[in-house]
Amino acid sequence: MTVDPCTLEERDGEIVSLTRWWREACVGTGRLVLVGGDAGAGKTLLVEEFGRRLGDVRLLRGSCEPLTTPLALGPLRDMAHRLSPPLRRALTGPADPVEARRLMLDELRGGADPTLVVLDDAHWADEATLDLLRFLGRRIESCPAMLVVVYRQDEVGARHPLRVLAGDLAALPVVRRLTVPMLSKAAVARLAAGTDIDPAELYRRTGGNAFFVTQVLSDGRAAVPPTVRDAVLARAARLEPGAREALDALACLGTRAAPWLVEAVSGRAADDLDACVDRGLVAADDGAVAFRHELVRVAVMEAIPPGRAAALHRRALAVLGARPPGEVEPARLADHAERAGDRAAVLAYAPLAAQRASTLGAHTEAAAHLRRALDASPGRTDADRAGLLEELGRQCHLADDLDGALRARQEAVEAWREVGDDRRRGGALVGLAITAAHLAREIPLGEKACDEALALLAGQPPGPEYALACAIRAKLSGMAFRNTDAVAWGERLLATAGEGTGPERALALLSIGIGRAQDGDVAGLDLIGEGVRLARQASAHDQAGLGYFWLQLICVTRRWYREAGRWYGEALSFTEDHGQEVWRQWLRAFRSRALLDQGRWDEAEALASEVLRTAGVDDGRRMIAMVVLGRLRARRGDSDPRPLLTRVRSVMVAAEPVVGWIIGSTPALAEAAAYTGDLDQVRTVVTPALADAAAQGEPWFLGELAYWLSRADGPAAVPARAAEPYRLQLSGRPRESAEHWQEIGCPYEAALVLADTPDEGMLREALAAFDRLGARPMRDITARRLRRLGVRDIPRRPSRAAGPDGLSTREQEVLALLADGLRNAEIADGLFLSRRTVEHHVAAVLRKLGMANRSEAARYARRNDVTARRPAVPPSSRTP
Q1: CA–CA separation, 628 vs 295, rounded Å?
Q2: Alpha carbon of 453 to those of 448, 457, 460, 481, 490: distances in Å?
Q3: 170 to each of 134, 139, 561, 783, how far by Cα in Å?
């Protein structure tokens, strides 16, 4: 019996959901739909059937390929022939990822008819494609379009880039999720009806895998093969030798290829390829031939003997390498070269592939290509290898692999030293300093590298390397709060840059502005803003991102919240438009701290949690987010925050004396200890840090440390440079201090001041403020102080609010992650909770929802769109 491959069992609900979301998109409310499921569950078939039922609609479809290193923007290339000429040129000509993203958005906005975009096999997506999805997901709501992203759920772990992307977009109202389950026993029995196959055995062997079931039933045999691979190979074994050679060639070429290419590589006639189509292993696909499923290709590929596979890749390399320049992507040629074992070809094509990937914004893939080239040239130390290492460091840094960037840049410095090129070694040292400055624990290394670079480059003709070294030295000075030095380095750079309007002048203005603003001159912000403007004019996007970073850092640490809001919306929009996810995360980390300070705790928690989910390395972004969450736990009386804050401090041990004022782990840990009455720990962590802070002179950090030490040791000398509200508080002027805190916009700090007095009126004010904020520990401490004064009419502590389903904010977040398929250990890792705490949250979710297990809870979450109810920053807080 031959079963129609379009048979859809138990998919009516999924079709109804897709149809509803399509109707919403058609009236101008775009949708991003994430369709997940295991390999063979029938995801692609479901989406194809949905598209078929829509009839004559504008359909754009592309797929990601399982190349060793994914092809940058591969899905857009698949659909290029259906795109507008400007977008086609952006994809095939001089690459500009910012322009490509903007043109794709125009494509979805400007069509006469609604557009359905299907991106298949997104678990293999490259970095540039994921950036495109992130860009479109944040803007598709205003488009008459639906973007369907199909991926294998079993290949997307907690740290997979697609999982990170999904978490990043989860709170957006446009996002919808659909999970395609395996077939039930009843569905398998219905499909097997009328055959000689035992439906129970078929279900037992296949587990309800729709593709596997279809393969077995299409073969028409009574015996059920034990695996998908066996089912596929049983069908392939009945091909004639010529057809099998064509099938093998297609497997080596990828999931789809032009018929002429298969014929050229296999050496077989068109009839042999047609036989593969007739057997149901291959299908015609818009002028190409493609495997029915990736599982078929993998089964065929794994059965090809290694020697024959290498020979087929050599033929593919020869055929594709002979095509006109620009027709074949160098990434595809590099992939065939590596699989063929041709090192010379790898060295020829991999650097070109890296360059192409980098220009499209796929820096992860660019780094992979460079590693491939370096692996093909072991043992050499020459200028070419040194250059590859230097470029690898740059690409790793851009890909947010800072540890990889640090290693590559250190190797590049040593390689240029062996080559004997001081100018290039100086440039490599500048690169090393840039990466080290991003890793808080490596700041001492960054300062050393920068000083070495300046010494080497001072004897060289003026160039961009020297200008960048001055700028990095100014940045490091600013991070250490050596503001006079930052201004001096900026002025030195300004003298070199002259009156031009290029990147060097932009860096100079940034440096001068940083130093002045940190010294309390608000006008310094305008200098930084002018530097950002010049950087944007010169298309120096990373320098512009750096400027926005400093604007937020300075405004938040100095409590200039109005100015922070003024710049935040512009900065966020710029980093989103330009795919600068790392700078965006820094901005949001600082924003979460500002929200914490301003008493907007739910928003601060949501934002800090997002940074933790999406940041790839333990740098300052994650440290700030962890401190925000730790302080929230301490102030709300949630689970013990000290393990989390101690972890931050242990990571920061080398950099704490330099940038402790930026991260704030020491006062956070002191605060948590103070609430539990552990005054010895307060003294232990604050005393050495206070000496460093006094020498450094940052007023807010100094004042805060002095305040927490006073909680342990009583009144002490007031540091001369302490910020004004702390100085007033430590000088015994609580009312003035509280008013100052309120004027700044910090309600919790204002309440802390009032709670430290013996005055009943002030204590009542503090109690009311703590109740509004949900600050249980200090609320209870204040209530006890009132009782000791003889006060009896103390209001009862308000209960915590719950969501519409009775779940707390944290329980809703845990439920959302259950819907993503995460295990307890992965949830604990993502939320920085202990496994035991997560177990308690999961048990509470099941109890409140009346669910028997986590699978039922996950289905409930998907049906009720709980993922969209994750705590999110309201629109009003996203703009100044």
Answers
A1: 45
A2: 9, 6, 11, 22, 17
A3: 11, 14, 27, 40
543-596 tens-digit pLDDT: 999 999 999 999 999 999 999 999 999 999 999 988 898 999 999 999 999 999
What's the CA gap between 54 and 56, in Å, rounded? 7
Which residue is listed with tokens 């796929």? 362
Give the span between the Cα atoms of 249 and 416, in whole angstroms: 43
pLDDT at res. 508: 94
* d(C-alpha 868, C-alpha 315), whole Å: 50
């369907």: which residue's tokens?
A: 148
Cα–Cα distances (Å) from 418 to 52, 153, 425, 427, 798, in that order, read: 62, 47, 10, 15, 69
Residue 341 pLDDT > 90: yes
* Per-residue pLDDT reduced to its tens digit, 160-199: 899 888 878 877 889 999 999 999 999 999 999 988 899 9
- 357-378 burial, b at 16+ Cβ within 10 Å, e below that, comes to bbebbbbbbbbbbbbbbbebbe
**Pairing relationship of beta strands 145-152 and 31-37 according to DSSP bridges:** parallel
Q: Answer for the pair 552, 568: CB distance below 8 angstroms, yes or no.
A: yes
Inform me whether the pLDDT recorded for 713 exceeds 80. yes
Tally of CA atoms within 13 A in the half-sphere of 440 that contains its CB: 27
Q: How far apart are CA 610 and CA 871, in angstroms?
A: 10
Q: What pTM does this model have?
A: 0.85
pLDDT greater than 80 at residue 715: no
> Token digits for 840?
């308690």
Report d(CA 432, CA 396) in Å as an integer.
12
**Average confidence score pLDDT of the chain:** 90
**Edge-to-edge strands, sheet with 31-37:** 58-63, 115-120, 145-152, 31-37, 175-179
Angle at CA 78, nearest 5°, toward 76 and 84?
Answer: 60
Q: Which of the four pLDDT bands, split at 50, 70 and 90, describes residue 863?
A: low
**Per-position DSSP letters for 248-281, written without gaps between them:** HHHHHH-SEE-HHHHHHHH---HHHHHHHHHTTS
Cα–Cα distance, 332 to 349 (Å, whole number): 9
- Distances from the Cα of 403 to the Cαs of 394, 615, 616, in angstroms? 12, 13, 10
How many Å from the N-terminal Cα to the C-terminal Cα in the chain? Answer: 65
Structure tokens at 584: 């965006």
Which has the closest alpha carbon to 354: 308, 388, 313? 388
How many CB atoms within 10 Å of residue 172?
A: 16
pLDDT tens digits, 746-784:
999 999 999 999 999 999 999 999 999 999 999 999 999
Tell me the CA distances in angstroms from 84 to 60, 76, 89, 120, one per residue in order.
12, 12, 9, 21
Residues 735, 737, 738, 744, Cα dihedral to 10°: 150
Cβ atoms within 10 Å, residue 405: 27
Burial of 704 (0-12, 13-18, 19+ CB in 10 A): buried
**Cβ atoms of 178 and 47 closer than 8 Å:** no
Confidence at residue 194, expressed as pLDDT on a 0 to 100 scale: 86
Interatomic CA distance for residues 466 and 247, integer angstroms: 57
What's the rounded Cα separation, in Å, for the pair 545 and 790?
56
Looking at the chain, how many residues does it have? 880
* DSSP output for 718-771: PPTTS-HHHHHHHTT-HHHHHHHHHHHT-HHHHHHHHHTSS-HHHHHHHHHHHH
Which of 54-63, 364-373, 616-625, 630-639 shows the lowest per-residue confidence on average (mean pLDDT)?
A: 616-625
Closest of 704, 681, 684, 682 to residue 693, by C-alpha: 704
Q: Give the C-alpha separation, 628 to 623, whole Å.
A: 9
CA distances 682 to 217, 648, 703, 756, Å, are 70, 16, 15, 17
Separation between Cα atoms, residue 620 and residue 254, nearest integer Å? 41
